[in-house]
């Protein structure tokens, strides 16, 4: 405990109190404080370790994607307990190496496990600068560069949606962006809820597909709406929301005494990569006066040229039907840290609203931060638009990467992902023992590996049960070997299948071939 003693005179001080006060005039504390040469030497050593272990080895196909250890063994290897005494710099550097060594290398070309992967050097440079400056973009006075930069990046993202004006904010992940949308839609309908809370509200209903991200239900629970307020709309066989059932669910909710207020559509569902029919859904929302939120967290938004962002030249007509974001939406959640590879975390909530709804909904006018008599334009103090006070700077990595790549370079990155996804699909069709769950329309390629013992056994009554056991076994084997990582899941009545996500911009056809060959090697005895 740190205690400040207030005393009338030094004669009243006990010896230990006098020693405590004298510390303020003593030399800097240990652990490099006050020694810029030692600080620079430490950081150079740490950066050297990062470049060697996390970047060079962590992105090399010849290295392991992970070094699997059981939890108790890993605890011992990391020596996690915090002690009363500090350690030497040599020990600290060794700890840095150990942390990197036993961490999963998400920049590895064989890391297919999540919707994010790869390591963009310009985005990483932005992240390093961000962490070094250690600021929060709530006021212009302490983050002038990033306040202006965030506004410019959000403006560009809104333009890609098709909006010439609007608002937005960077959020700590797509889940929070979705929760913001729910809160804003509720506030717009019932502004008294900010002061009076749930007492100001009738029973509310929001609508989303059964294929939506789980954060919609979590957001409803967090905001006090309750998960029962989430009405699940049917999806077709490809995972797209059925607009006719949306109409039915709205009528049913009204008949039960609930007030519909929002529809959350999805462009690129988490598992199947399905795109809801946004125009038809927007028509429904317009008829009923509902807020339309579009979750494109797993994918991207439309390009300025009228071509869906990332579509191959000449394929616009084929792809426009599912990959564009309707400018008729009221809000859009988008994660550049996924398919664009900006690095965790980089999530934007974009709004068509021009009435300063974010600030009205969330503002509290804290006088110690948002003084109205500052010497500059206080409209630049954007921190009152968000729920957080301290907030991470997430715009620099995207801005720097965009500056380096240009819009065309980012589009080419997406083109490459689509091309490799199509290559993988065609290879799956050629190989015995592989079966597509469905033809993909995005970079999510879902498939089963059917081991030799199950081939030709589809009519067996226990086929589905036995097939479900294959993916977990192969996942364990690949991780313990460290050869690759790929996610799996059941889906409805479908047995566990693999979901391959083609997102890393450094991937080649050789990596697709390796994936299939490695599954064959790992599963040949099953």
From TrEMBL:
It holds the Pfam family Pyridoxal_deC. The keyword Lyase applies. The modification N6-(pyridoxal phosphate)lysine is found at residue 338. The keyword Ribonucleoprotein does not apply. One of its GO terms (molecular function) is sulfinoalanine decarboxylase activity. One of its GO terms (cellular component) is cytoplasm. Homodimer. This is Cysteine sulfinic acid decarboxylase. The lineage of its organism: Eukaryota, Metazoa, Chordata, Craniata, Vertebrata.
